[in-house]
Amino acid sequence: MRILSITLTFFMFSCQGNTSDIKTSVNQPQSEPIQEKKQVTNEVIFRDAQGNTLSDAQKDSLVTNVEGLMALRRFDENSNTEYILFKDYEDLRGFVPDKEIENLIEENRLRRSGGQGAVQNKRINDLWKDKPLPNDNFIMIDGSESSFDDYKGKLLVINFWYINCGPCIVEMPYLNNLVEEYKDEDVEFLALTFDSVSDVNTFLEKTSFNYQLGSASKELIFGFTPIFPTHMIVDENGIIKDIALGAPRDTKLIFNKLVSLIEKNKK
């Protein structure tokens, strides 16, 4: 069975560790699922750590009698939701791939030490750091079409945002200062949102944002990050070199943080 997604889910019967405060302010809107042509049954299925389907009685017995029980949630090709109940990550050997188990162990360590923000940081960096930008297209606010390839040859700073993201808006004056700081250098500043071109233009009637602004599909935006704002530093060859998730609690610090990353990656 193909695993479409694996996320660690703690139920009310789970043993949750203490986590420290996340030190960034983030907005995390819910993405819309991509529609595929397939049979949809939408069942909820419970399995044990080795993949055996549990009856309601067996599931209730585990929940009642096993202290510290955890669950993995995943979705199959028919959009069924499966909950895999387990006591220890090692119990999943032979059913869940070893690589996924090691990743879950590492994410649990990060979650306990740095909260869910640390886990998201790891996932996004694992996915994109030192990887090339895709050659996807998006629409600029003047209606023209552009792509990431258009920015090759210069250092590129990308900001992922949306118009109802409070932390995104609060940091815009500092991002405008960043554009001014590098106006005489080969550094490009691109902000991408899933909001429509017309909505962005309406937003700009009241708020100044001096990045080059583009509108992209939700599929493209959420393929990069579920956290807003997110900043990515891309070298002249189109390789993502550094990623900054969220806005600092002290918003003005974003200016120095991005300056540091830009200077680090300049030729």
Task: Explain how this protein is built.
With 267 residues, the protein is α+β, with helices and mostly antiparallel strands. It folds into 2 domains: 7-128, no CATH class; 137-265, Glutaredoxin, CATH 3.40.30. It is 31% helix and 22% strand. It is built from 7 helices and 13 strands. The strands form 3 sheets. A 7-stranded mixed β-sheet has the order 7-6-10-9-8-11-12, sandwiched between helices. A 4-stranded mixed β-sheet has the order 1-4-5-3, with helices on one face. Strand 11 and strand 12 form a beta hairpin. The longest helix is centred in the middle third of the chain and has 31 residues, at 98-128. It is elongated, with a radius of gyration of 21 Å. The chain starts with 6 loop residues before the first strand and ends with a helix.
Summarize the structure.
This protein has 267 residues and is an alpha+beta fold. Helices cover 31% and strands 22% of the residues.
SSE succession:
EEEHEEHEEEHHEHEHEEEH
Q: Pairing-aware structural class of the strands and helices?
A: alpha+beta
Q: CATH homologous superfamily of the largest domain - what is it? A: Glutaredoxin
Oligomer designation: single chain
Distance between the termini: 47 Å
Kindly report the CATH topology of the largest domain.
Glutaredoxin
Percent of residues in helices: 25-40%
